[in-house]
Design brief:
By secondary structure, the chain is an alpha+beta fold. Among the domains are: about 130 residues, Roll (Nuclear Transport Factor 2, Chain: A); about 40 residues, no CATH class. About 50% of the residues lie in helices and about 15% in strands. The protein contains 8 helices and 5 strands. Strands 1, 2, 3, 4 and 5 form a 5-stranded antiparallel sheet that branches. A hairpin with a 3-residue loop joins β2 and β3. The termini are far apart. It is found in: Cell membrane. One of its GO terms (biological process) is sodium ion export across plasma membrane. One of its GO terms (molecular function) is sodium ion transmembrane transporter activity. Keywords: Cell membrane, Membrane, Signal, Transmembrane, Transmembrane helix. One of its GO terms (cellular component) is plasma membrane.
Length: about 260
């Protein structure tokens, strides 16, 4: 019985040991002095740089920029360094000129290290956060301005008014557009009526009356006169044309001879 109880306690102890080992989190090893030196250099450089400094760095090639950082012995990546310069310029526009900063706090995980500090600017305070990768190279830097509760509520109210105003403007526009739909049938009927209207018939010009041929003067046509006279005499049963004289011959319009 005692052996069974001992084995049970041993099993529980082993289980608790494995559980404790599994729940422990591994953190990356870092040199606090080296990290602090890098952050101090970056803050001092950003605070003293001119307005066109960022443009000069951005116009450099990747090889030249990385060579400059390597020669200076700075543990900064290209993107991390340029991002830090942009973030600092934006912070100065929002918070004013840099004054000082406080102590650093370190939060390490398995593959990154976060270093943060409270900074004082001319217009408002800000929270600066540096993120280093597993090789202790600067990955990013952010500067978050700190607002009072009243400023936050004011900004939230302005955003709410702006959003609701935009919604109401869009709804009014949609309502006005829908109200114009009642004119569509009248416009469509007008276009249809115009399309179906008969076109004016072209004016018919009167045809020219056929020209009446001038009667031919056949008074001198003796041969034709003799033939006609003989035909008339034959129709009357006379063998001679002495009883009449053909003086003129005129063509009748209705006859075709």
């Amino acid at each position: 019985m005692r052996k069974k109880i001992s084995l049970l306690f041993c099993g529980l102890a082993v289980t608790l040991c494995f559980t404790g080992c599994g729940s422990s989190k591994e953190t990356m090893a870092y040199d606090e002095a080296t990290v602090q030196q890098s952050t101090e250099f970056l803050i001092e450089y950003c605070a003293s740089m001119q307005d066109d400094t960022v443009e000069q760095w951005e116009t450099m090639t990747d090889f030249a920029l990385e060579s400059q950082l390597t020669q200076a012995g700075l543990p900064f990546t290209k993107d991390g360094f340029l991002g830090a310069l942009d973030a600092w310029q934006s912070a100065e526009k929002e918070c004013g000129e840099y004054v000082s900063h406080g102590d650093y706090t370190y939060e390490a995980s398995k593959d990154e290290l976060q270093v943060s500090t409270e900074a004082e600017f001319a217009d408002r305070d800000a929270h600066i956060t540096f993120v280093f990768d597993e090789n202790q190279y600067l990955d990013s830097m952010t500067v978050d301005a700190e607002y009072t509760t009243g400023e936050i509520l004011k900004k939230a109210g302005l955003n709410t008014v702006l959003g609701m105003g935009t919604v109401f403007v869009v709804l009014i526009f949609i309502s006005a557009l829908i109200s114009l739909f009642r004119f569509i049938p009248a416009i469509e009927a007008a276009f249809k009526k115009k399309k179906d209207a008969p076109k004016a018939a072209p004016a018919v010009q009167p045809e020219a009356a056929p020209s009446v041929e001038e009667a031919e003067d056949v008074t001198d046509d003796t041969e034709l006169v003799a033939v006609i006279a003989a035909a008339i005499a034959a129709s009357e049963g006379s063998s001679s044309t002495d009883g009449f004289t053909v003086r003129s011959i005129r063509r009748r319009p209705s006859n075709k001879w």
